[in-house]
Amino acid sequence: MTNIPDTPGKRTGDEGWALSIQGLTVSYGAQAVVFSVDWRVPRESMSVIVGPNGAGKSTLLKAMLGIIPAVSGEVRIFGQPFASQRDRIAYVPQRASVDWDFPASVFDVVAMGQYRELGWWRRRRAQHRAHVLECLERVGMRDFADRQIGQLSGGQRQRVFMARALAQRADIYVLDEPFAGVDAATERALVEVLRSVVREGATVLCVHHDLATVTEYFQHVLLLNVRRIAAGPVHEVFTEALLQETYGGRLTALQLARMPDQARPTPSETPLAKVS
Fold it and tell me: Which of 37, 32, 34 is closest to 228 using CA atoms?
């Protein structure tokens, strides 16, 4: 396992990071699917988890968020125990895990993001309704507010779930494969929304599978294959040698050739150039 340290924050200790994971291990029966992962995510960054199918990327996210149990490990948010800070996180799951037959309007789905603020019984006031519409406007879906969620295309549904996350007014946005199966226009729109929340002071963490866009979209990366292979700034970590180690040597010449010239790893440890 290659050990590249995370980028130091402005302060020492966990309080200088948006997210700190130490020794996180998850197993299904006797099989460890995530093993002793350490990672720290810088504040106000676009960070990404990359690895092959079965590497434990989504499992790491779910264990980090307490959705599934971990065998061991600790998660801290802004230096504090996760349990005391969970309301500061918005989570966008994979679209395949959502029941799209649930009879709810687009407005109602986005309004669910206000649950922690309002609870089940507090009356939604004009400012809350206005905020829902504002979130839909940011993702280009305001005109669909009254549409049933099941009537939308895959890209439209992903925009709505991004709007629901925005409605939470979160400090950390965690997204599992947010660009999978969406059209190019939706992907560009979602990337710009994520960049905007980072500019506003939030932190974004994604699982992502398209190696060709990693250097364009993200500043920090975790290379994962059950164990942490490497982590740090994209320009230091996203190299052909470390990618081959992450993918067990299965990264083919065809996969590399499909990457833009600016993002294609070199045969050496030379970092990738950032796509302009």
Answer: 37
